[in-house]
Amino acid sequence: MFLRRLIALCVFALLASFGVAACTVEGPGTKSDCNVSGCTVTFTRGVHAKATVLGVDAELVAVNGNLITLKVAGQEVTIPAGQTQPAEGVNVTVQEITDEKVVVKFATGITTGN
Fold first, then answer.
1. Strand order of the sheet with strand 84-87?
2. What's the pTM?
3. Alpha-carbon span 95 to 51, nearest angstrom
4. Each residue's pLDDT tens digit, 63-111
5. Between the chain's N and C termini, which has fewer beta carbons within 10 Å?
6. How many CB atoms within 10 Å of residue 89?
7. Who contacts 80 (Cβ-Cβ below 8 Å, separation ≥6)?
8. How far, in Å, are 18, 36, 78, 101 from residue 83 at the CA level?
9. Which residues share a beta bridge with 97?
10. What letter would DSSP give residue 112?
11. Which burial class, exposed, middle or buried, applies to 81 when counting CB atoms under 10 A from its CB (0-12, 13-18, 19+)?
């Protein structure tokens, strides 16, 4: 599992050196917007929504008020809206919770030197 994350981080770093800004991937119940610093995933509520980002599987398990529970690489984590928590080598931030969607940022820790 560590090797998959390391490869994903290396690919993002390589793409950044070539000036690749971002990519978008849509799947059943999810939309992922990725750039060199990480991926923002929009999970649709009420469906079995999961995505693979930065070499890690992420699945929306539950929403309870302003708390969400995600399964990240098989580990369940509960995070309040607006908070960040490390999970399986990535920082996970809950950016938005609505009746229709949950928006979560998965950060790599890589930054571009502007």
1. 22-27, 30-35, 38-44, 101-107, 90-97, 84-87
2. 0.75
3. 17
4. 999 999 999 999 999 999 999 999 988 999 999 999 999 999 999 766 6
5. C
6. 19
7. 66, 67, 94
8. 32, 21, 10, 17
9. 102
10. -
11. middle
Round to whole Å and give the CA distance between 10 and 36.
10
Taking phi over 0 as left and psi of -120 to 50 as alpha, with beta for the rest, 55 belongs to left
Q: How far apart are CA 73 and CA 20, in angstroms?
A: 27
Q: Within 10 Å of residue 92's Cβ, how many Cβ atoms?
A: 23
Q: How many residues does the chain have?
A: 114
Residue 10 DSSP SS3: helix
C-alpha 64 chain-centroid distance: 19
Give the SS3 label for residue 3: helix
